[in-house]
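Posting for a labmate who doesn't have an account.
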Amino acid sequence: MSDDPETAERKMRFLFALRQRGVTDPRVLEAMERIDRGEFVRGHFEDRAYDDTPLPIPCGQTISQPSVVGLMTQALQVGPRDKVLEIGTGSGYQAAILSLLCRRVYTLDRHRRLVAEAEAIFRHFGLTNITAMVADGSHGLPEQAPFDRIMVTAAAEDPPGPLLAQLKIGGIMVVPVGQSDAVQTLIRVRRDENGYDYDELRQVRFVPLVEGLGQT
């Protein structure tokens, strides 16, 4: 998409909407301004790329609504030296934003097609600090653990034990939890020497965290 006057205006409204919905961290807003969501939305929904709404992507998945991406990123409190694990690459939009905020992102998805398409967009943006892998995200990535931050973009019934174990002491994980598609709660988990502290942040709706690899 070229930045014609109409597109530039939509991007301005996009950023204004993020602020209105509580995304106030300057680093997060700057990253979301630099990473054009329009590059991640193709086909029938391309003209809705700057709307604050989730949109379908291949393999039965979705690209999350921008305000939720911003609020989850803000809640994760990512630092420039952090090593981040993301579960659920999807379109690659969330990983791209995280990559501007941290030292390295490892992102996992069970669908080969999504990983391949996300990697192409990462190359387009020149994002060299993202490692995207086809893997069962419910097991995390033990060979690279521990992680400073873990972002889960699919809903589990409870924060997955393997992911909690891969969180560094002092680390933070943000994960949607809930036993139905209709009612899920975004949880922030902090790990300290004595265990885990949990904060409920807001109601959300995400696709479920599924074990195993996809067929595509």
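Reply:
Got it, the structure tokens are right above this. The two ends are 28 Å apart (CA to CA).
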